[in-house]
Amino acid sequence: MHKTKQLFILVILLISLTACIKTKIIDDIELIMMLGYDWNASEEKYIGTAVSPRYGSSEETDMRENSEYTAQAKTIQNINSYIQTKAPNPVEIGKILGVLFGEDLVKHGIEDLLLSINEDPNIGRGIHLAIARNSAESLLKNKMITERTLPRFIENLLLNNSKTNVPEMNLHDFNYRYLGQGMDPFLPIIESTATGIELTALGFFKEDKIIHEIGYDQFFVFKVMYEDCKDHTYEFDWQEQDKSIAITSIYSKTKKKWDGRDKVEIDVEITGTLTESKQLGIRSFKEKDKIEKAISDKLKEEGKDLINQFQELEIDPLMIGASAKGEFRDWNSSDWEKRYPEIEIIPDIEFNLEQSNIIQQ
Amino acid sequence: MLIRKVIIAMLNRIRKKAKNKEKQKDVHDFSQLIQIMEKSDDFKKISFGNVQSIKLFYYHSLINTEKLQTNLLPYCQQLNIKNIEELESILPFDDTEITSDLDIIEEKIMAGFIATHLEDDTTKVLLIPAKFKTDRDVAPPEIEFSVIGPKLAFIEDINTNINLIRKQVKLPQLHVKRLQVGKVTKTTIAVMYIDGIASPDNVQTVIQRISDIEYDQIIDSSFIGQMISDNAQSPFPQLMDTERPDRVSSALVEGKVAIVCDGSPHVLTGPTTLVEFFAAYEDYFLTWPIATAFRIIRIFAVMFSVLITPLYVAVLTYHYHIVPGDLLGTLISSRKDIPFPPILEVLILELTIELLREAGARLPTKIGQTIGIVGGIVIGTAAVEAGLTSNVLLILVALAALASFTTPIYRIGNTIRLIRFPFIIFAQMWGLIGVTIGAMFLITHLLRLTSLGRPFTEPLFPPRWKDLKDAFIRLPFDLQGKRPIYTSPKDPNRINLKRTKPKRGKRK
Amino acid sequence: MNQQQKPDISQMVSPFLLLFILHATQIGEGILSFERRISKVAGYDSWISILLTGLATATVIFLIWRIVPENKDLIDVHLELFGKIIGKIFSAVFGLYCFAIAIIVVRSYIEIIQIWLFPDLSVSYFLIFLYILILYMVLGGFRIVIGFAFFSVFVTTFLAIFKYAAFSNGYIDNLLPILNTEIINIIKGIEPMTFGFLGIELILVYAPFIHRFKTGLKWALLANGLTTFVYLYSTIAIFIYYNIEQLQRITWPSLQLWKVIDFPFVERFEFVGISLHFIAIIASAALYFWAGTQCFHRLTNISFKKIAISFAIIGVSSVFYVTNFLVIERVTTYLSKIGVYLLFGYIPFLFIVWLIITGVKKKNA
Fold first, then answer.
1. Which residue in the set C129, C144, C269 is minimally distant from B447, CB to CB?
2. Other C-beta atoms within 10 Å of A253: how many?
3. Is the Cβ pair B447, C148 closer than 8 Å?
4. Crossing angle of the two packed helices B342-362 and B391-404, in degrees rounded to 10
5. What is the ipTM of this complex?
6. Domain limits at A165?
7. Whether residue A41 is found in the same domain as residue A149
């Protein structure tokens, strides 16, 4: 009996002695939701902008209000601690939804920044990355009225577009492409316009610098060549019939077929439907074949253009190098980089019309 | 220091024991016993002046006076009674006894017997049963209520309780071993088991432990439960206690041992396991998929009840990372006005709930209901409005309280109420890691527990896959062909599956 | 030999439980970081190294079953093979090795906790609680330790499921082409991998606690196979999720993988994962601790409790001599090297000595 008593006293003593870990009580911290970084070329410093939502005391208070803090420093952690001088509560960046890079910064290079983000165990790896047109600071200080807070708005914008218009690119995916051999990363570019925030383009990186951009009209062809996807729309100018029709793709599958060391075919099969057919009735197999061929040819052409651009710039966002690495035993990085511009890459895109429509023409 | 204290206490105990023995020896004959008893005002002495004067001694408060007047007095007035045996033979009582053993006489008089002897022969004493029955009638169960199935519960009388069990197990092999414990209360304990099914080891252990009990009062079976359980320091009950005769009968058939205690409406059965405490007997009245679903719900409810407030403390104090974005706003908003850290908030609310529960349990039923309403609605709403606790926590604590009531055995419900608090403290110390450490202590504790020497966590560990048939899931009766292994029954087979299966086949 | 030290029947467990005991000791801290270690040596073909290690350790298990007779343990074997003094020294060294592993396993996991959860954790108090827990387990007897290990297996299996995230976001191409690494590197990969298979040597200590020990061989081999499978599964998940350049930069790939797992009710699974995996760590530490205590208990006749408590105190004071991550890293490397020599050097050596001695005895008879 007395032993249990002694143990009890020991336990109570220990409990009273240990409560000394720094607490991060959820409502007593400055919860940063989104970070934006810009490059101050004249001072060679990063400008960090942090947005944290101001929560009301009950559900009725609307949560559109944000606090924004800006600070300049040479390292990320120092930006955080500098931000602390402006924030009332301890700054915590563990819950950030995304990181935006300013245009100047992506031209300057984001390597240091990226690696230091990777080093912080607080930050998740599923966070979204994007490039902010002009500066991240101005975008994050946008006073647009959104349904949720601005960081949540941007997160949802990136998340939903990554399902339909552009491939998904979170911190992990970016790291994968940035550090891996035979591939190059890309990021969506968002822009603050008069009416709101838009995803306008896709920026391609060479090493850690942006080198190329494609606009909305090339999203479709890039995405179908890049990955299997579901549910996206392509507008097709059928010059032969002088009509612009829209196809909605139900799903597409892509595969890389190597034909010798210098020739690869990107085999894409799209299955879709004609949703805005502009009175273009399809009543026979012949007509179906005709429209399928027309669309396929157009996509092949667009795909070829895009690939040529990539080859000229010596970037490989389609991960053709990685595919070669899995195909050929003696693959090595430097040899590949030399040969990449000369490799014959054929986009073999085929469109199949499968679904009918609710309207009979 | 402590050691010395313990030694002194032990010596004292030994001395006291010796004294008690001496006291018993003080009473040398019947008249001395009467002298002691006479000091009580309700003790009566009647004598009939005949050839041989007959003397009656009894406690007025213990016997049925009607019986005395109608059945005994007319016979006593007969003239030619020469010896006590003659008197016995003419009396219309069936449980009479002639003895000169003072211990027995004392015991019987205290149990509502009338002692009779003839004037000239004080050595032979006739004991006539005339017990005044004050027990209540057998009533439906209140704690382990079931919607379907038999509605009988034990009462305070040991004979009625044994009768209730015997009515269900009609087998001569159902043995009852009576023991008497409690120096002052002299409580009768009956150990029941089915000979040929129950493991003799278990029976022996129970009888041994009960007869070893050294205590002055045994008021209820829970006294026995605490005294004979393997680890009395544990908050976990290691013997099942139930008020349902059907549960006890079923346990006996499974090869367990039942302990019936006079004056207690609860019967203990053992050995038992942890999972059994989450099985309601009603599970056997429902079809097996439904019963299984309810059992699983109950187990989740218990885990929820124990873990939800510690997790609240851990997450809100240290791990804001793991709160999903959509929930974050709700949580922060609801806590914005609260002046306390989560730990205090949780402790305040948990203690409030405990207060309500205690108040509800102590007060008369009708007032208790009012307290429930006052507590639940008024205090809860007021606490939130006043900004002492958050809405979210109020919901969680209420749910946790509700979940802890789903356990069919009241006793384990209390345990669950209690073990939540160490978890909360661990959560405050080290967040989620702390909760894990708490869980590890709990698992180790459960592993160390035994019930009558059988592992308490069986069938999980040691893993006995066959016993899982009636643990988290309840398989249909035709798959329950074997008795549980942890009771180590002498006869492991309930039924002969070879014979049952063809019979079922014919029905289709 | 003192008969009291032999296990009583209530502490013995069925041979079937070897499946859980062995698996629980093998899966420890290693599973969080071994992918990085092996891929450093053998690249993306290092999953073959895992298979080879599994085979090699299976052989070691087989040898153990040949060496250890029923109801005898390492101490008896040492006595029989090397005589009283040398045998005792060997047993004591083995005991110390067990304690060292127990201490370093706990300490290195605390490092993870410090990095991911509480940078300002007070290690000494934390250790006091952990050693109270371990003592509570170990003093309950072998059965309690095993029971805990048994439950920990379910936790690790549960956690292994969450590597599914890799399969939905990964690139199978990463594994191709198979056998692109030189064979010699794949064989070299066995060495870092063996750390993940350590735990087999403990059978030498708890053998007499297993009912019908000789029949347990198939369960032990099955456990080893299960471990191999878990490592293989884990490696493939990690390899298709990360490319090799990325993998080399990540200390604990599994924890980083858990970071992307989101549920509607829990985001950032790594916090839950680290907390749950702690159970596996404590289980394997408790087993090593128990084995060390048992070794010394058998050697010295001092009561089990006293040895356990004094080693627990040494364990708590490890906070004074294992002070930073470099020490942890170095000690881990040394211990894993010792482990490799133990498995692939010492046990075969024991076997050969045993063969010679039994041969001599037979001839004499």
1. C144
2. 13
3. yes
4. 40
5. 0.94
6. 26-207
7. yes
